[in-house]
Write a structure and sequence with these properties.
Tetratricopeptide (TPR) repeat protein
């Protein structure tokens, strides 16, 4: 319950009490379940390495006691950590093991979940067509077994693919289908996430006022259900809209609220994202020194939590500040790191970042020639 309310520190305290008792009474299956739950909390706190350590302990026990369904769930969890750390190929390997087990034991709902996860890996690799193929398999199974919540989740994921392909109208239609189901089944947390996604579509379509309306609906629900991390993410999105509308001071106020919450709940990954966003607001205000200060606060956190994609985004922003300051050599050094990080996580923006690197190199060469 505390985990669901977003109070992860309190959740952790109860899970640790449960773990002690499970070990005392020799309940290995229960111990593995609790280790999994603790891993989930650390994942939510932005500590993927600690999450991985607990998931691996859980996996060992589940394999020892022959809990095949639990083993598949834990393999899925390990895969999610690998994906978060930017190692999508490794994530795919864990998900494929989980899929095989789910199919062997006839866990159709688990099979659909794993197909969804595999789809997310391919989406992250930029292979949206392959992602769509896995999502569609997952959707068919969710509908067959009557898993309405799973159906809604998959419709959301398919919506993400269409949004990424630039077909925002199709994405919107899928999100709206997902929203209807979530409202029917009373899944308030997922409803808020979907409202947030609809807001992102409208923002992408340039309709910032409509985007803001959906973000505000999402924010209200997240506050009602106590999803503090989700509240921070939506405050960030509202800040983005305000910045797009030219109200950067208002944007800064929302981002600062988001930062406070991320720090309160211990969401280190969210904290880094928000610091980066605040830096972008200051850059938009023309205060490059202040922007750089926030980017430099974000960078060590992205490295600490293993968010290589987030590190790449922040380093790119640093490079743009350095370029604007005329320090082309330093900008090139940052962009070289960005390109390397993009390669490591097989990021779809690798070509764009490489092109920017070459552009600044040419700019530097021209500057030397003119001198």
């Amino acid at each position: 319950m505390y985990d669901g309310l977003g109070d992860r520190r309190q959740a952790l305290a109860f899970y640790e009490q449960a773990l002690t008792i499970r070990r005392e009474v020799g309940d290995q299956a229960g111990e593995a379940t609790t280790l999994n739950n603790i891993g989930h909390v650390y994942s939510g706190l932005g500590d993927p390495q600690q999450a991985l350590a607990f998931y691996e302990q859980a996996l060992t026990i589940m394999q020892e006691v022959g809990d095949r369904a639990g083993e598949a769930t834990t393999l899925n969890n390990i895969g999610s950590v690998c994906a978060r750390l930017g190692d999508r190929r490794q994530a795919l390997a864990f998900y494929e093991q989980a899929l095989t087990i789910a199919q062997e034991v006839g866990d159709r709902a688990g099979e659909a979940t794993t197909l969804n996860n595999i789809g997310q890996v391919y989406a992250g690799l930029g292979d949206r067509r392959q992602a769509l193929a896995f999502y569609e398999q997952a959707l068919t199974i969710a509908q067959e077994v009557g898993d309405r919540a799973g159906e809604a989740t998959t419709l959301n994921n398919i919506g993400h693919v269409y949004a990424g392909l630039g077909d925002r109208r199709q994405a919107l239609a899928l999100y709206e289908q997902a929203l209807t189901i979530m409202q029917e089944v009373g899944d308030r947390a997922s409803e808020a996430a979907t409202l947030n996604n609809i807001g992102l579509v409208y923002e992408g379509l340039g309709d910032r006022r409509q985007a803001l309306a959906f973000y505000e609906q999402a924010l209200t629900i997240k506050q009602e259900v106590g999803d503090r991390a989700g509240e921070a993410a939506t405050l960030n999105n509202i800040g983005s809209v305000c910045a797009g509308l030219g109200d950067r001071r208002e944007a800064l106020a929302f981002c600062e609220q988001a930062l406070t919450i991320a720090q309160e709940v211990g969401d280190r990954a969210g904290e880094a994202t928000t610091l980066n966003n605040i830096g972008q607001v200051y850059a938009g205000l023309g205060d490059r020194r202040e922007a750089l200060a926030f980017y430099e606060q974000a960078l060590p956190i992205t490295r600490e939590v293993g968010d290589r994609a987030g590190e790449a985004v922040t380093r790119y922003n640093v490079a743009m500040v350095l370029r604007a300051d005329g320090d082309l050599a330093a900008a090139i050094a940052e962009l070289e790191l960005v390109v390397e990080l993009d390669r490591q996580v097989e990021h779809p923006d690798l070509a764009d970042d490489t092109a920017m690197l070459e552009q600044i190199r040419r700019q530097m060469t021209q500057t030397h020639t003119e001198t």
